[in-house]
Design goal:
193 residues; 4 helices; mainly beta; 51% strand; 2 domains
Length: 193
């Protein structure tokens, strides 16, 4: 392992003097807040993913370090399966379902609130999918997510005929509680240091 300052590492990149497969320890990364160990991919390129988790990023699913901007970008895949029972929302956690980075689920009727275990700085992507039970319902149920940095709110709507047009309106608690119906939720969120 070779220990370098960030400036020395930038110079080694520019001079194309890195040793492929060698691990370079950047001693003053992220504004002197942590040490980052990166592997040299070639004489002029360092991998962005640390070979050992950093102290700042150890609690995240993934981390990448940008040597040029001195930023550490950490991200988590947040996911869970939710179900409405008796008009109230909860997450399923059993032998076949395991939530990730979800602190709690609550809400009633057409709104399901998913609270994360952390607060992030950016949302990278999200999806909410109804299962086959909801999709086979005669109500034409759809689901959309309002994704935030510390929580997401799922909104369920049904399709009704209003005059000659179809219209979407929120489901009521009984309609949300179709036995065996689930919503599969996932989001990828990031925090940068």
């Amino acid at each position: 392992m070779v220990t370098l300052t960030r400036q020395q590492a930038l110079e080694a990149l520019q001079q194309k003097s890195l040793i492929p497969n060698e691990i370079y320890q950047i001693s003053n990364a992220v504004g002197n807040h942590c040490i980052v160990r990166l592997s040299a991919v070639s004489a002029e390129k360092l991998a962005r993913k640390p070979v050992v988790p950093t102290l700042l990023g150890a609690d995240f699913d993934m981390e990448v370090y940008d040597l040029h901007t001195d930023k550490l970008h950490c991200s988590d895949l947040i996911s869970c399966v939710v179900r409405s029972t008796g008009g109230h929302w909860g997450m399923i956690q059993d032998n076949g379902h395991e939530p990730r980075h979800v602190a709690s689920v609550n809400g009633s009727g057409s709104q399901c609130i998913i609270n994360y275990t952390k607060t992030y700085s950016k949302v990278q992507g999200s999806q909410a999918n109804i299962d086959e039970t909801y999709s086979q319902s005669a109500l034409g149920i759809t689901c959309g997510a309002s994704v935030g940095l510390g929580r997401s709110i799922l909104h369920l709507h049904k399709t009704i005929l209003s005059g000659n047009a179809l219209m979407k309106i929120p489901v009521n608690p009984a309609e949300a509680s179709i036995p065996g119906s689930n919503i599969w939720f996932s989001a990828t969120c990031m925090k940068s240091f």
